Amino acid sequence: MGGEVLALSGGVGGAKLSLGLDRVLPAGALHVLANTADDFEHLGLTICPDIDTLLYTLSGRANREQGWGLEGESWNAMQALEALGGETWFRLGDRDLATHLWRSTRLAAGECLSQVTAGLAQRLGLRSHVLPMSETPVRTLVDTDEGELPFQHYFVRRRCEPAVRGFRFAGLDAAQPPPALRELLASPALEKIVICPSNPFVSVDPILQTGELWRALRDAPAPVVAVSPIVAGLALKGPAAKMMAELQIPATALGVAAHYAQAYPGLIDYFVIDSSDATLSTGIDQLGLRSIVADTIMTTTNDKERLARYCLALEGV
Amino acid sequence: MGGEVLALSGGVGGAKLSLGLDRVLPAGALHVLANTADDFEHLGLTICPDIDTLLYTLSGRANREQGWGLEGESWNAMQALEALGGETWFRLGDRDLATHLWRSTRLAAGECLSQVTAGLAQRLGLRSHVLPMSETPVRTLVDTDEGELPFQHYFVRRRCEPAVRGFRFAGLDAAQPPPALRELLASPALEKIVICPSNPFVSVDPILQTGELWRALRDAPAPVVAVSPIVAGLALKGPAAKMMAELQIPATALGVAAHYAQAYPGLIDYFVIDSSDATLSTGIDQLGLRSIVADTIMTTTNDKERLARYCLALEGV
């Protein structure tokens, strides 16, 4: 090892494997490309939930029980905003607010999202790189039985209750991955590409579709390893399984593999599923992906590091 | 009494007399026209220091020792912002941040500053009205021996250290008082106009010059009572005395009276000075203002109410 690794990640689930990779790789070797299609403008601030979950997780500041936000957070601003009758459905802690104020100020001053994110990563003392999937805004719109909803309205405000019919990524046509990513893809030092166990539809799809990134990943010499976010028919975190049922896709690791195989032919070399899903191996292999069975449930830091090592050990095909 | 009263106010000193007026007048009778030339855009938020000092003071939430901000405030967002190397020279408490987030959101949604301010006043339970002097931005620029500085940079960041040569109010040409003020001035119910003991140059001047408001006040039938912010050659709060010395104006109540008499001829009917400045009466009378001697130092609520009653008792001339 010693080479560079690219991980594609959404929020919580992806951040767990990213943390494992961060811990087992040399400082600076990991580049996490974060979904930004969940980002939104709220209370005048630019909020990037997946980038922040990654920054907080990789810097050891994440609230582990809650799954988002900062450990030891206080909520005085939200309480005061509630007393004013302001919008408090998206909970912003006092310290978390500082991140959004800092980011919004820098963006307003003309910095691009890559620079702002790198600045935050540096100040938080990260040993890995975090990159936004796009400098320009891409925003997921969820087509539901109640009409089209901006992602955070669907996800947080409506707690994923409306039934999903599909997704649209506004701004995708104009979006391009940041130059640093293009450089990494062109570098012979890139040894592995890991698609973290994030939501395929609202976290991974927008990343892969930004500037048709998936074609560049497919053509890169480094093998692409994807880890299933669905284990034993359940999403370990978030609405992936519920979404798949509503989209008439089997809510299994095989369903995820089929989605990737169909949407991004030739992209994925290895598809890692949990030991509890070992019976799905044959079906996955028949899709042209190589199924790999491993313990993918990441509870402890040890679990995260072990799965990271496992993914990194898979050789080029 | 029972009629309407208009008070012109900056921050702390003006808010004290405004509170006295608020306490002795029937609910709804007091209209405080607040200076907005101290307002600024900071961390992506629109911050209105004088409006907020008035809102917090009149709703009983002000931090009395500090002279600004909220009682019992916490500072977690600022601490986190400091850790990020963000701009923390303008201290924003966690609960105070909610006010700025609420305001900025409403302004971004297209509400005008009057509506936003009235909304805050209503939610904070005020019994008086607070109006911004202008719906559109007016921004004080301070000409100093170190060049021109935006007001809050001079006032907070540089702690009023640079020597002042003059002031410029950017945006003044396009600014107009809000329609509610025009209505009040046209109403026969308006019984008194009080110029609070605020800084003449950076708090009262911008208000009086917005849309040449001073001419409308001069022509209104209600008497205009001004209270000197300078007592015994000292500004009770803020840099007024230091500014006057730097501007080569005697830093006395007489100096303030002369400034008003010259800049706004015929405007002021009564000029209230502190008992310790009684010897200045003759000079003030010679300027064509009627000097009134009273105890103007407002420490307790009682002091504020007494001075308020005193101002309200002065009859039309």
Itemize the secondary structure elements and their pairings:
2 copies of one chain form a homodimer.
Chain A: E1 4-9, H1 12-24, E2 30-34, E3 40-42, E4 45-47, H2 49-58, H3 76-83, H4 94-108, H5 113-123, E5 129-132, E6 139-144, E7 147-150, H6 151-157, E8 164-170, H7 179-186, E9 190-195, H8 200-209, H9 213-219, E10 224-227, E11 230-231, E12 234-235, H10 240-246, H11 253-263, E13 270-274, H12 281-286, E14 290-294, H13 301-313
Parallel strand pairs in A: 1-2, 1-9, 2-5, 9-10, 10-13, 13-14
Antiparallel strand pairs in A: 3-4, 6-7, 6-8, 11-12
Helix pairs in contact in A: 1-2, 1-13, 4-5
Characterization of this structure:
The structure is a homodimer of 317-residue chains. The two termini of chain A are 16 Å apart. Chain A has a domain at 4-62 and 127-138 and 169-313: Rossmann fold (3-Layer(aba) Sandwich), CATH 3.40.50.10680. Chain A has 317 residues and is of the alpha/beta class. The radius of gyration of chain A is 19 Å and the shape is globular. Helices cover 40% and strands 20% of the residues of chain A. Chain A has helices spanning 12-24, 49-58, 76-83, 94-108, 113-123, 151-157, 179-186, 200-209, 213-219, 240-246, 253-263, 281-286, 301-313, and strands at 4-9, 30-34, 40-42, 45-47, 129-132, 139-144, 147-150, 164-170, 190-195, 224-227, 230-231, 234-235, 270-274, 290-294. Chain A is built from 13 helices and 14 strands. The first copy, chain A, has a 7-stranded parallel beta sheet, sandwiched between helices. The first copy, chain A, has a 3-stranded antiparallel beta sheet with strand order 7-6-8. At the A-B interface, helix 3 and helix 4 of A face helix 3 and helix 4 of B. Chains A, B: GO terms for molecular function: LPPG:FO 2-phospho-L-lactate transferase activity; magnesium ion binding.
